[in-house]
Design a protein that fits this description.
Strand content: 5-15%
InterPro entries: Transpos_ISL3, Transposase_DDE
Structural class: alpha/beta
Number of domains: 4
Order of helices and strands: EEHHHEEEHEHEHHHHHHHHHHHHHHHHHH
Protein name: Transposase
Pfam family, one: DDE_Tnp_ISL3
Organism: Actinocrispum wychmicini
Radius of gyration: 32 Å
Shape: extended
Number of strands: 7
Length: about 475
């Protein structure tokens, strides 16, 4: 439908006026300098906000509103920002303008879980300036970043800071994995222990010991391991000569974070744990079967390849030949024993609620904890923290920190030291119902449309065990 309007035109008698003529406007139908009606503009804005530019242009064309994606983008950019209004509970987190390059800060009203402002950077001064301009904030939900803590302290000194529980659990998980790596030898059962050499070891070599030694030699000869050793030695030498971290980074062409990690490591062995443990390859779960078949007399690689292919092996034939080469040289294979659990698997089992584990995972965790008193005590500390966090028992934090520091867990001591430095916010996070779950959802680009979708995901929990040598049931 085409609507023809007869409008009046007005002239301005003021010669200094930049606009000499004025056209009469009809409310709701026309607007100045517009090529579409307010209702059509509103429809295009709604479409572009809902499905974005390209998809919005296709949908508008189907509805008879022919337009382009650039036009929809211009309409979205022209929409004025809604007024912020009073904010009492503020959520703050960083987001990436360009990942690993440029970051800013996103602010949310935690009462409505809606973004209210974006800051160009993630510094303390920017957050403090915003808080001074918007008084009335009584609670600030944040992660463990020191810049946001300092900005909230400067901009809203009377506001209570709340550390996010997910970040607390995530931080604990990292230190738990490091502690398990420190005690990774306890993951090996008696069947994995290297037996004592017999009196006639020269005549009959220990196949298990030779296999383990060959695996160690293979890992040590890997290019990554050699490079880490060389970089560690070079970093320690430059730092001993008085060079700074930045200077060492420039001299060795390494990232400053890498140099700092090498500088903090007590020995190169700490840096090689991941390379030595490694992720299991496609042949890993078939090794016990291959050892058993080799000891039964089947030593043909092609036949063994066909057998494990039927069981789901997806690796290559050369990988199988390299693994069998040692057995062929020695003339026998080590006993067919199940592989020891990986550090990551034990970490996952320990951080999950026992009800979320299957029977096999629960049994294997029980075996590990029964074999290692250190890991049993670690599981007890993890369960205690989970119970404190999910039950909002922040008053138990000092007691938990004291119990952890009484044990010989250096990595957990680093975690408790960080909690002590940010004690007030951590206690609030473990006591109050507020958290930064909504900030994380919006900051990661996820849509937030309903109270159910805005709720923070449930945290993994564990029931505190009655004895330090038992897995909570």
């Amino acid at each position: 439908m085409v609507l023809w309007l007869r409008m009046r035109r007005f002239f301005c008698d003021n010669e200094t006026c930049s606009a000499r003529t004025f056209a009469e406007q009809v409310d709701g139908v026309t607007s100045a300098h517009a090529r579409r009606s307010p209702r059509l503009r509103g429809m295009l804005e709604s479409i572009s906000l809902a499905v974005a530019a390209c998809a919005g242009a296709r949908l508008a064309g189907r509805l008879g509103l022919v337009t382009g994606r650039d036009t929809l983008l211009r309409l979205v950019r022209a929409i004025p920002d809604p007024p912020i209004g009073p904010v009492t509970v503020l959520g703050v987190d960083d987001f990436a303008f360009k990942r690993r390059n440029t970051y800013g800060s996103i602010l949310l009203d935690m009462a409505t879980h809606r973004p209210i402002d974006l800051l160009a950077d993630r510094t303390a001064d920017s957050l403090a300036e915003w808080l001074r301009a918007h008084s009335g904030v009584t609670i600030v939900c944040r992660d463990r970043a020191g810049a946001y803590a300092e900005g909230a302290r400067l901009g809203a000194p009377d506001a209570r800071q709340v550390a996010d529980r997910w970040h607390l659990w995530h931080g604990l998980a990292g230190y738990v994995e490091k502690t398990i790596r420190q005690h990774r030898h306890d993951l090996r059962g008696p069947e994995h222990d290297i037996p004592e050499p017999a009196a006639d070891s020269a005549a009959s070599p220990d196949v298990e010991q030779i296999a383990i030694a060959a695996e160690v030699d293979r890992v040590e000869a890997h290019a990554v391991v050699v490079r880490i050793r060389e970089h560690f030695q070079a970093v320690q030498q430059l730092l001993a000569q008085g060079e700074s971290v930045s200077g060492t980074s420039r001299s060795l062409l390494l990232d400053r974070k890498t140099v700092r990690r090498f500088a903090r490591a007590g020995s190169v062995e700490e840096l090689l744990v991941k390379q030595r443990d490694g992720r299991p390859g496609p042949l890993e779960r078939f090794k016990p079967y291959l050892r058993e078949r080799w000891n039964q007399g089947c030593t043909t690689a092609t036949l063994l390849l066909a057998e494990i292919r039927e069981q789901g092996y997806t690796g290559s034939y050369p990988a199988l030949k390299r693994y069998l080469r040692l057995f062929r040289a020695v003339g026998a294979a080590p006993p067919a024993t199940p592989a020891a659990p990986k550090v990551r698997d034990v970490t996952r089992w320990m951080l999950h609620h026992p009800d979320d584990l299957d029977d096999r995972e629960r049994d294997r965790l029980n075996e590990v904890l029964a074999r290692s008193s250190a890991l049993a005590r670690l599981a007890y500390h993890v369960a205690s923290f989970a119970e404190m966090m999910t039950g909002l028992h922040g008053e138990r934090l000092d007691e938990w920190i004291a119990a952890v520091e009484a044990d010989d867990f250096p990595h957990l001591h680093s975690f408790t030291a960080g909690l002590a430095r940010d004690r007030a916010a951590v206690v609030n996070g473990l006591t109050m119902e507020h958290n930064s779950g909504a900030v994380e959802v919006v900051g990661n680009g996820c849509a937030v449309s309903s109270p159910a979708s805005r709720a923070a995901p449930p945290l993994p929990t564990r029931t505190a065990p009655s004895a330090p040598t038992a897995v909570p049931a």
